[in-house]
Write a structure and sequence with these properties.
alpha+beta, Immunoglobulin-like, four-stranded antiparallel beta sheet, 8 strands, 40% strand
């Protein structure tokens, strides 16, 4: 299982789902999903149609949705990390770079409107 990794994943309606691989034939690997070192129940694994991938699906409990950055980890029984999902929410975002970019975009839009208004006003005087 050393080379097992998440190929693709998504989060919709509180359900983290995706594909992992490559896997050999035989029994499904023993995997678990953790949040704050606590195992989350309800992980569903199924063999993919191609035979070399697995699909996974787990409902995230509401406790995972909290202020700050919350990380959910998919790992094997030996504790080797296969992949993770980071959730960012709440007031901790004030210092987050994405929030800063959104503020800069809003300021740029305001400056563009002011500049266009200035051009219209000064162009009408000539």
């Amino acid at each position: 299982m050393d080379n097992l990794a998440i190929i693709s994943s998504s989060l919709r309606g509180g359900v983290w789902a995706g594909r992992i691989g490559p896997v050999a034939g035989g029994a499904l690997p023993d995997l678990q999903v953790l949040h704050l070192d606590r195992v989350l129940e309800g992980l569903v694994l199924a063999r993919g149609e191609d035979g070399v991938t697995l699909t996974f699906r787990v409902n995230l409990p509401v406790e995972v949705l909290s202020d700050g950055v919350q990380t959910v980890v998919l790992q094997d029984a030996a504790g080797q990390r296969i992949g993770s999902l980071a959730l960012v929410a709440g007031e901790a975002l004030e210092a987050d770079i994405r929030a800063e970019v959104d503020l800069l975009r809003a300021e740029l839009d305001m400056l563009k409107r002011a500049f266009r208004r200035h051009c219209v006003e000064t162009g009408a005087d000539k």
